[in-house]
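Lab notebook page, bench 4
Experiment: in silico fold of construct C2
Operator: M.H.
Input chain length: 366 residues
Purpose: comparison with the prior construct
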Amino acid sequence: MSSFVRYLPASSPLVLDSPHSGTDYPADFRHVCSLPALRRTEDTHVDKLYNFAPALGAAWVEAFFPRSYLDANRDLTELDVNLLDGPWPGQLASDPKLLAKVRLGKGLIWRMTDDGVPLYERQLSVAEVQARIANCWQPYHAAVAQAIEQAHAAHGFCIHLNCHSMPAVAASHATDFPGLAHADFVVGNRDHSTSSPALAQRVCEHLSGRGYDVSLNHPYKGVELVRRYSDPARHRHSLQIEIGTIQTIARAIVLKTHYLVQWIDVSTLLQHHRVGIPAIGILIEVVPQMQDRIKLCSRELLVHMEEALRVVGAGHNSETQLPGTEAGQGPRPSHRAVDALGAEPVEIGCAWLQSGGIYLDRIVLH
């Protein structure tokens, strides 16, 4: 496996991957925008938010490279040729829908950040783009494909969760809906083409039952990884899960709980800020009773994922019955649920809550 990718095999039908949480910036990146601007493009700490998953028997695939260097959640044809210093020898997308992210500067190789900040003042050589594909895209996709294939072969079905985080409000160049205030969770299955509709609905019901605002397929439907590796007719279900990590914790604190909220000045803020967005805000120290809220919800979702598939019957009819099950039922859970929260603390880190001006520096989930 590539040094840019981490892959932990599974013992259950669950497969999770995090393509956008990488923070290892290669020396050959040669970007001109600031590192803080680049770091705001990361789904930072999604890997830590789901670090309990392997203990549940789930496969885990994680990118160490940053999405701004190469976006593993894009097809190889989604390439902005204006970035290149020569003709591209491979195929290029022509479908306007497939080119939507390219138009925003967010194709396979990013041209600008979510806020419209250019990454380069140069053109990239064809050779260096090919090297990024060989070193990053290919091993990442090989790992996801292997994980799903092995889970499906062992259990007769597979549930793949493509894990992401999102800001409170869509930035100017992030989606086709700039300025949109996001729900706490967005579940995507490309309009029910990558998973059973009933399974997606069950996931939404679980999350909303925990008190969160949930949106299905808007504004994030799921992109390349769920499209490429899903096949619901063959019992391969893929869902994209977007979690508004920072906003959800902040809103839960502000609206639903009583916690220590400490005002701090700019100098103190900058001392705590590891990524660098100079702004007056609020440093929220989350007390122990609230620290596990989101992580516990995610854990419960995984623990009950196979049970959810059994309850809803995976949306299959009698002609597409899951192996080893009776009519009208889905597969039985094949791994023992782990109920206790892990003891290791997980630092979610710092981020800027754009909609409310709330600055979160240290949030630790246990």
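Observations: The two ends are 30 Å apart (CA to CA). The first strand starts at residue 5 and ends at 8.
Next step: discuss at group meeting.
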